[in-house]
């Protein structure tokens, strides 16, 4: 059954409570998937709401002035509360909820997890963004830059793992996974082939894809078709609309 997507003119959903907040997302946003994974890892009883980013509901902006996903919202005796920006939401989820810790206890290791997320955001994030939106002319350079960024990632992931920063799943895994698992889509979009080697990235990707929290954050709108196939369709449609504009 297709999941309802709330659009312009929709009624604001119940906003839940601090313990069981509303998680506002789309099925295909990698940033929102970061928070989706963190919520799943912590075992938070959230209420998931899909919104239409082309026709945003009016009630969305008071909760997030950027009008972006992910957004977390809840109500208590003091009123309505909301948080947004994926990495801030993930730090909040880690701080606010019980459940397995997504940061190491040791302060140096905690800082290293945050550093990995920060460096990923500076290196792989922009290279991925450029590749996914590359025109035919731009594709070779964008592919080369992404290859270099992924080679950096291969050396930056903890060498023995199995997770990004060592033996345990951390906020780094939650932050990196949604982007890395989309890299294979670039083959269909710009003919990009993931470079040979990258053994650490490949081994890590297999481990996180097998993680229940990640599987539960993969909800294609049409359950009869694959998630990747539908993601590819949505990227193609988005690119066509950008080029037509
Ligand atoms: N820096 C933000 C980026 C979130 C973001 O760009 N989300 C996109 C969907 S993937 C969005 O909501 N776009 C709607 C818009 O910008 O109008 C984060 O980390 O949460």
From TrEMBL:
Swiss-Prot/TrEMBL keywords: Transferase
Molecular functions per Gene Ontology: glutathione transferase activity
Documented EC number(s): 2.5.1.18
Cellular compartments per GO CC: cytoplasm
Domain GST N-terminal: 19-101
Matches recorded under Pfam families: GST_C_2 (PF13410), GST_N_2 (PF13409)
Domain GST C-terminal: from-to ranges: 106-238
Xref: InterPro entries: Glutathione-S-Trfase_C-like, Glutathione-S-Trfase_C_sf, Glutathione_S-Trfase, Glutathione_S-Trfase_N, GST_Omega/HSP26, Thioredoxin-like_sf
Protein name: Glutathione S-transferase
